[in-house]
Structure formats: C-alpha cells, structure tokens
Please model this.
Amino acid sequence: MKIVNISEAKANLSKLVAMVYQGEKVVIAKNNLPLVDLVIHKPEGRRKLGLLGGKYTVPKNIMDEDAEINAMFYGEDT
Model:
C-alpha cells in the first residue's frame, strides 16, 4: 500500500493511476491523514427500464386544463 499526500498525487497522478491499474493500493492523504482510496472504476451496469410497467395507469383527462391552476398562472377572469 502506498500513501501519498495531495501535492504529490497532483504531480504524479498518471503514475499513481498506472500503479492502481497494475493492482497496487494507493491512498491519498492530507497532512499524512488518509482521506481517499484511488480505485479502478467499475461500471454499474445498464439501467433497467420499465420498473413501473403495469403499476400505474395514466388518467384519461391528464391533458385537460384545471381552472384552479390556470388562475394561479393567469389570474382570475373578472
């Protein structure tokens, strides 16, 4: 395991990335206090679409105007 301070990490980032890619553990520290681990990115996978399929029905009047909402936007007709 290699512990490097932030200033050293900034100066040697590509070298540290290569080390992590090769399997070494790298910890970035501030004032010798470990803050973060430098790790290889692991994709989360594909999004699953249609999770709510069949669980919600859209009302027939979804596009109808609502007098109360129109009054909020446009004011009352007098």
In short: Residues 2 and 26 are 5 Å apart (CA to CA). The radius of gyration is 27 Å. The chain is about 30% helix and 20% strand.
